[in-house]
Design brief:
Elements (H helix, E strand, L loop, with lengths): L1 E4 L11 E4 L2 E4 L7 E6 L9 E10 L2 E11 L10 E4 L2 E4 L8 E6 L14 E5 L5 E7 L19 E7 L8 E8 L7 E5 L5 E6 L3 E8 L2 E8 L4 E9 L9 E7 L14 E6 L8 E2 L9 E3 L4 E6 L9 E6 L9 E7 L10 E4 L2 E4 L8 E7 L11 E6 L5 E7 L19 E7 L3 E3 L2 E8 L7 E6 L5 E8 L5 E7 L2 E8 L7 E6 L8 E8 L14 E6 L6 E3 L2 E3 L10 E3 L2 E3 L10 E8 L3 E8 L5 E10 L2 E8 L6 E9 L4 E8 L2
Parallel strand pairs: 4-11, 13-19, 23-30, 33-39
Antiparallel strand pairs: 1-16, 2-3, 5-6, 5-9, 7-8, 9-10, 11-12, 13-16, 14-15, 14-17, 17-18, 19-20, 20-21, 22-32, 24-25, 24-28, 26-27, 28-29, 30-31, 33-36, 34-35, 34-37, 37-38, 38-42, 39-40, 40-41, 43-44, 44-45, 45-48, 46-47, 46-49, 49-50
């Protein structure tokens, strides 16, 4: 999201970024220069009017041309790309950087002489891109309600420039303008996604936002105290706004009775097109159904590092107001695949430091060994300039302490231990939905996607692609029970399936973080845990659990079956194993044999009694319920010192 604040008749260029699903992508396509007028003055004396644009043709001579001869409140001109000069058509781009003028007249005027009181303006400046000129405010502010923030509301023309190109065919670029003179700062939220388009948006401010084209509901809140003002249907798909830039403006009066009974508050959408720019006034919608308000600014920490040497750990923060090396504990005993509750403040002795007060300030984060409350002198890792965003902050601890001891990442991502921040803009979730954030923390796995299927096996969509330690996605799912199928991006190979039981886990109105954790190949990673998906519930209880299911398609690395002097040890079944497994072996001749199981340090942890066995195929039932999770070596030997071995994986 990009916000820009401007003064009267001052051009401000929008930042050329696309905000969606937690990522920001720069756009570099060439853009053209154009001009469009939108009439947002709710003063009854200004509707309808004619708008005349004055351009300097030569030698300082200003020539006015009619931008529109009849424009009513919430009306708009098409995009203007050129004007008629004495010697022919002149491109609007030729006026970039020049001081232009504009006059407002009655619709009956045949000349540009301004007849609307205060309707003569100069100093309008165009920039490269789409220039939107908003006719806003009222002729005599003394006869209307004052702006709650003390903003000037006198009739004027504000120009804003969006340098971003037209978006892709499946995306709509929204410029949201706040043109309501008597409204306080507003929050603008897309209900279906929970995304915040704008926060604290004051009169005569605008934000830019890219969103996949669809039919949505826009909820408008008073920012402080948070109060729902209106809800509107925004059928971007139905209106054909795919691949277009659209200006959505809050307009009218919040309280018409205090404003000469002018037009009431509403949203109007105007496409930025060269054809007829037909405005659409959005219809009101029902308010949000019952649900939960989520903390707007909060912190929750999730331990997703499968490195056995990094569990449990302590997580400390040094907040800006205190400075120096005064760290305060977020958690002093955080184990792998656990999460802290949601925090809106940090306990600093007898004080509670609000996280909201630290947004945007430099903060130090420190990971240490577990402690009973006293900060150790040396930390496992220190992250300077860690900062809070003014929204929900998820801190994901992932990676390994010594990357040389673990399998590398297939796409060469660094797997060193890190703190990754996942911000989320949603502040409300309906009771009928669950808000999901989905991340990838498996160090030795490639980019993955998750196919979402309903209880009948129908594929509803795909989450991803997810890159280890880098990307994440957000979505809202209707309450129900689903299956998530994990596969490498770009392939149809299912690596594992997991059950996401939103209904039975009572997750309506909740926000949860789903994180793929563990190792794809435990045997190559010190026998660490295998892949599972951790769910962390974003509330004050800090509930967390593993999704039922597992990583099934990729076999754990094993030592190949070996034959030695008449002995053959087969691969163990099942493998990995939770409780009981079968060990099969062949003897080509009768002999005395011994069976041992060794850990990764070479220590024997289990032995079968040596015995004389006849030639042929044999099997042995192994009770592994008491074994710790990890990798083991099964070794078959005889009295002559011959040995055969294979790998055993224990999962919990």
């Amino acid at each position: 999201m990009t916000r820009f604040v401007r003064l009267r008749i001052v051009v401000i260029a929008l930042g050329i970024f696309t905000a969606f699903s937690g990522t920001m992508t720069a756009q570099n396509s060439a853009v053209t220069t154009s001009l469009q007028f939108i009439h947002l003055s709710p003063d009854p004396a200004t509707s309808p009017i004619a708008v005349w644009a004055g351009v300097s043709i030569f030698a300082g001579t200003v020539q006015f041309f009619p931008a529109t001869s009849n424009i009513s409140f919430r009306g708009a001109t098409p995009v203007i790309s050129g004007v008629a000069g004495p010697l022919g058509q002149i491109s609007v781009a030729q006026f970039i950087g020049q001081s232009l003028g504009a006059n407002l007249t009655a619709v009956t005027n045949t000349s540009a002489t301004p007849t609307i009181q205060g309707g003569q303006f100069s100093g309008l400046v165009l920039s490269t891109g789409a220039n939107i000129a908003f006719v806003r405010g009222v002729i005599d502010p003394a006869t209307f309600a004052v702006n709650p923030d003390g903003k000037a509301t006198r009739l004027t023309i504000s120009v804003v420039t969006d340098p971003a190109p037209v978006p892709s065919a499946s995306t709509t670029r929204i410029l949201f303008y706040q043109g309501v003179t008597d409204a306080p700062p507003l929050d603008v939220i897309i209900r279906e996604t929970g995304d915040i388009v704008a926060t604290q948006l004051a009169f005569d401010q605008v934000v830019a936002y890219n969103i996949p084209t669809g039919n949505y509901t826009i909820d408008i809140y008073q920012s402080s105290p948070r109060t729902l003002l209106r809800s509107y249907s925004a059928p971007l798909q139905t209106l054909g706004y795919a691949g277009q830039r659209v200006i959505i403006s809050a307009s009218g009066f919040l309280t018409p009775s205090l404003n000469r009974n002018g037009a009431a508050f509403g949203l109007v959408a105007v496409p930025n097109t060269e054809s007829v720019a037909t405005p659409t006034v959005f219809a009101t919608a029902a308010p949000p159904s019952a649900g939960n308000a989520l903390p707007a600014i909060s912190l929750q920490t999730i331990h997703a590092s499968a490195d056995p040497t990094l569990s449990p750990i302590a997580f400390w923060l040094n907040t800006a107001p205190f400075g120096g090396a005064q760290f305060f504990p977020i958690s002093t005993n955080l184990a792998f695949r656990t999460a802290t509750p949601v925090r809106t403040s940090i306990s600093a002795g007898t004080l509670q430091v609000p996280i909201a007060g630290n947004t945007g300030r430099p903060t130090d984060a420190l990971i240490t060994a577990i402690t009973t409350g006293t900060l150790p002198g040396a930390g496992i890792i220190r992250v300077p300039n860690y900062s809070f965003a003014p929204l929900a902050n998820f801190t994901l601890l992932e990676g390994v302490s010594d990357s040389t001891r673990f399998a590398p990442n297939p796409i060469r991502r660094s797997i060193r231990f890190q703190l990754r921040t996942l911000p989320d803009t949603a502040t409300f979730v309906a009771s009928s939905q669950t808000r999901l954030l989905v991340a990838h923390s498996v160090t030795d796995a490639p980019d993955i996607v998750l196919d979402v299927r309903d209880a009948l096996g129908n594929t509803l969509g795909t989450l991803g692609p997810l890159t280890y330690g880098l990307t994440f996605v957000t979505t809202n799912l209707t309450i129900g029970n689903y299956t998530l199928s994990m596969r490498p991006n770009g392939t149809n190979t299912v690596l594992g399936t997991f059950s996401l039981n939103l209904l039975s886990e009572n997750l309506g109105g909740k926000r949860i973080l789903l994180t793929a954790t563990g190792f794809a190949n435990p045997a190559q990673n010190l026998g660490g845990p295998g892949v599972r998906i951790l769910a962390a519930v974003n509330d004050s209880n800090g509930r967390f659990f593993l999704l039922p299911g597992g990583f099934t398609a990729v076999r754990q690395e094993q030592v190949a079956p070996q034959a030695a002097s008449g002995m053959m040890l087969h691969i163990i079944s099942p493998n990995p194993v939770r409780d009981e497994a079968t060990i099969r072996y062949d003897l080509s001749e009768a002999k005395e044999i011994a069976m041992n199981i060794l850990d990764t340090q070479g220590k024997t942890i289990w032995s079968a009694e040596s015995r004389f066995m006849p030639a042929g195929e044999h099997s042995l039932k192994l009770d592994a319920s008491a074994f710790a999770q990890g990798a083991y070596l099964v070794r078959l030997s005889d009295l002559q010192g011959n040995m055969a071995s294979t790998r055993l994986m224990i999962v919990r």
